[in-house]
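A favour, since you know our structure tokens better than I do. What I am after is a single protein written out in full by you. Could you add the entry underneath, on a fresh line?


***
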Amino acid sequence: KGFHLLLRAMSAQPGLSLTVIGDGPELTRLKEDAKGLDVRWLGRIPNADLPGLYRDHNLFVLPSLNEGMSNTVLEAMASGLPLIVTRTGGTEELVDGNGWVTEPGDTVGLTQALASAVANPERLVAMGERSRRIAEEMGWEAMAGAYMRLYEQCGRGASHE
């Protein structure tokens, strides 16, 4: 998920705090890399607790090296968080005035995005509102309606014998 890159970028931005949800085989090494940084390690969290955790934060960062359409990004957006993500899979398609997209593995770009976020707290609020609107447009009802309209358009263009 690229958390080692986020820890490096954080070390260049004093005063930031990070909450990490989840675990995995790199956890011990990441905790060692995070020495001296303000990081809370929450481990696995029940899905029911996630919305409250998202709302307690100002920004969602997913510096993945490889990602598809990330559920965690969608959850963060639905919770009204601005994003910093990497140009991987379908993730960058979710950023439209609601955050920053960096290249996978680009610690300098990640550091710059964090600096921009820290420097513009009022912009973060507007970006979070934009995230929420984008997420609402991607809800099940909205997406099902879009597919139905597409299906109907395709049916009108087909020739029937």
Notes: Strands lie at 17-21, 38-43, 60-62, 83-86, 99-102. Residues 74 and 138 are 9 Å apart (CA to CA). Helices lie at 3-11, 27-33, 50-55, 71-78, 107-119, 121-137, 140-157. The radius of gyration is 18 Å.
